[in-house]
Amino acid sequence: MNVVDNLPEPIKLENLMKIHALLNIILCRDEWIRYHSFLPEWKDKISMAKIDNGAGDHLFILFAPQGTILKGFDHESELSPYARDEHEIWPGIYDEVPKELLLLLEDEAIVNEDVTFCIWRRNCDSEWQKGKVEFPKGEEDGSNFLLGTIFQTPEDFVEFAKDYFDLTPPLYIVANIYKGTPITAEMIQMLNPDCDVEEVFQELGSTFSNNTAENNKR
């Protein structure tokens, strides 16, 4: 199966990335350790989600008025520019990307040269697109690995949290957050008993819209 076949529609994908970032904020108070992050107003009506495993691999997702683009980098892939003598981008990764979406990656925070795969979808497209790239035999571009850290079910996120954060968040609370239930102080305490609830609310409020968290401190 083509890896892009498992990607949800852009609106659902954006919502999932918000949920992941929200849960990361609650479960991990050290920002630099967080796996998922989200900036609703990154710049010029563009939202940015990021996955960073802290080991040199990352995935940027930009949600823009003209469409959505994903840029991934697996530092161990043979498609990495650093695995090539001239440090060139692997042929085909960006060749077919529409110019209006490719321009979105021209930001120093994204480092568009650090790439092993790119996936995009304009608003007029009916499905996700990926460039025609010829892999060396037996090699991968990291897309299966990195897209696999977009957890489409609460169960998958809980399993991830157990391994990465060494916490076991109650499944029913995570499931309610996936459904869009506003966050309460009680939910935060049950997800992460050691956190400062007031600090969590402040960060949630500054990152997400007011309807994401219900500042209920009773």
In short:
With 218 residues, the chain is an alpha+beta fold.
Question: What can be said about the biggest beta sheet?
Answer: 6 strands, antiparallel
Radius of gyration: 18 Å
Q: Would you report the number of β strands?
A: 6
Given the C-alpha coordinates, what overall shape results?
A: globular
Order of secondary-structure elements: HEEEEHEEHHHHH
In DSSP terms (H or I, runs of 4 or more residues), the helix count works out at 7
Q: Overall mean pLDDT score?
A: 93
Q: How would you write the strand order of the largest sheet?
A: 1-2-3-4-5-6
Helix content: 25-40%
Structural class: alpha+beta
Strand content: 15-25%
**Low-pLDDT stretches:** none
What distance separates the N and C termini? Answer: 49 Å
Explain what you see.
It is a single chain. This protein has 218 residues and is of the alpha+beta class. It has a domain at 3-153. Helix content is 30%, strand content 17%. It has a six-stranded antiparallel sheet with strand order 1-2-3-4-5-6. The longest helix is centred in the N-terminal third of the chain and has 18 residues, at 10-27. The protein is globular. The mean pLDDT is 93.
